[in-house]
Amino acid sequence: MNQDLQNIIEESDNIVFFGGAGVSTESGIPDFRSVDGLYSTTYKYPPETIISHSFFVRNTSEFYDFYKNKMIFLDALPNQAHIKLAELEKRGKLKCVITQNIDGLHQEAGSKNVLELHGSVRRNYCMKCGKFYDVYSIVNSKGVPKCQCGGTIKPDVVLYEESLDSEILEKSVEYIEKADVLIVGGTSLVVYPAAGLINYFKGKKLVLINKSSTSLDKRADLVICDNIGKVFQ
């Protein structure tokens, strides 16, 4: 691990981690905006149209065709970043992981306090009766997944045109405001309102770890331009 980062971590026991797609790409999950990411796939509609609320309502079958093929990666395993963050939480240093990812890999690595801004592919609900379904119910279904009551099952994922869960947003703000150290990793900080959360940080050290530069680099106390898994290793 980068020595400066190591020192910052060792000196604090009130760290919050805020992560984006770059944390998952190293587990083999494609990023939306990279050259080989989801935006470059060939479907009849662009991905941002397919994973919108209105498309889900109007073309549920086509939505699920894309969703099952391109949004669920059950073979993906936690990488060094996920594992190290879970260790830091166990040691009492890391108070919370706030993530824009929907893959559930932080929990799989052992993190307990995870705030998922965009929901999770691992949770699904019947829109009619509210019954819970796991990810395998979706993967193993033919066509549109249906509940026993006849209702359509919807992933607990924030689609385009849907707003973020206000309770999760409030909790995220609270953790960031109280944090002594904020480590931001694997995000280009262009997706709002999530990216705006950084503005609530009033602590001592802001650390940015990302392969490319971000709009907040000048504000940070430490900037590391590298793969986050490599950095945490």
Automatic annotation (TrEMBL):
Binds 1 zinc ion per subunit. Its EC number is 2.3.1.286. It holds the Pfam family SIR2. Its main location: cytoplasm. Nicotinamide binds at residues 32, 102-103. NAD-dependent protein deacetylase which modulates the activities of several enzymes which are inactive in their acetylated form. This is NAD-dependent protein deacetylase. The gene is cobB.
